[in-house]
Design brief:
By secondary structure, this protein is an alpha/beta fold. Helices cover about 35% and strands about 20% of the residues. The chain binds guanosine-5'-triphosphate and magnesium ion.
């Protein structure tokens, strides 16, 4: 897929204030600092469209990007950041419940999981929550450039094994690195297939 246009459309505390033109949207979520904004920039081939940072919890609102005037990328605030106040955590939960359970234009969720560390409870809990609510999702392993190939394989095998304790079948996944631009074609391919499926249905 060629990305010929990618425009930031705004940052919204509530999806009811977000664009209402009924274009399909693809959400990107994961633990704080997992690399959501970096992945979005890599996919769209824009250096700094989505704001990245070393400070976890930078993205606090729903950030909308209109792509090729056809579909949206939504950069969502991360979860599992310990230094966040109880109030902020409650707000996050409310915003996510609203978004995931009510947003009709949401067609696929990309759940980003750090490929460098053992399975993390917030990731497993969130993936299971999506499953319980029947939301279509893909797991995207991030920062795969940070460890050696055999270590990467081991880490991912451990996460998959953890997931298989809850899932009969392994959810689909893609391995990426925003630094090395790996996984770009796979993620864009999934988006393209989803858009094609929607066009014929
Ligand atoms: P929040 O919005 O704060 O939740 O963070 P985020 O998930 O959007 O993460 P962000 O893209 O800002 O990246 C966090 C840090 O990880 C930054 O320092 C990035 O440079 C780094 N990073 C992101 N992706 C990669 C990657 O693929 N490889 C490596 N080595 N570093 C990465
Ligand atoms: Mg971010």
């Amino acid at each position: 897929m060629i990305i010929h246009q990618a425009d930031f459309k705004g940052s919204f505390p509530d999806h009811r204030q977000a664009p209402s033109d009924q274009l399909p949207e693809f959400a990107f979520i994961g633990r704080s600092n997992v690399g959501k904004s970096s992945l979005i920039n890599m996919l769209l081939e824009r250096k700094a469209l989505a704001r990245t940072s070393n400070v976890p919890g930078k993205t606090q609102h729903l950030n909308y990007y209109l792509i090729n005037e056809e579909w949206y990328v939504v950069d969502l605030p991360g979860y599992g950041y310990a230094q966040v106040s109880k109030k902020l955590r409650r707000n996050w939960r409310q915003m996510m419940n609203q978004y995931f359970l009510k947003r009709e234009d949401l067609v696929c969720v990309f759940v980003l999981v750090d490929a460098n560390i053992p399975p993390q409870k917030p990731d497993i809990d969130f993936i299971n929550w999506l499953g319980e609510h029947g939301l279509p999702f893909i797991i995207v392993y991030t920062k795969s450039d940070r460890c050696k190939p055999h270590q990467l394989e081991e880490n991912i095998a451990a996460i998959r094994a953890e997931l298989l304790q809850y899932w009969e079948e392994l959810p689909p996944d893609v391995i990426t690195s925003s630094v090395e631009h790996t996984g770009r074609d796979e993620v864009l391919g999934i988006i393209e297939e989803t858009l094609e499926r929607l066009a014929i249905s």
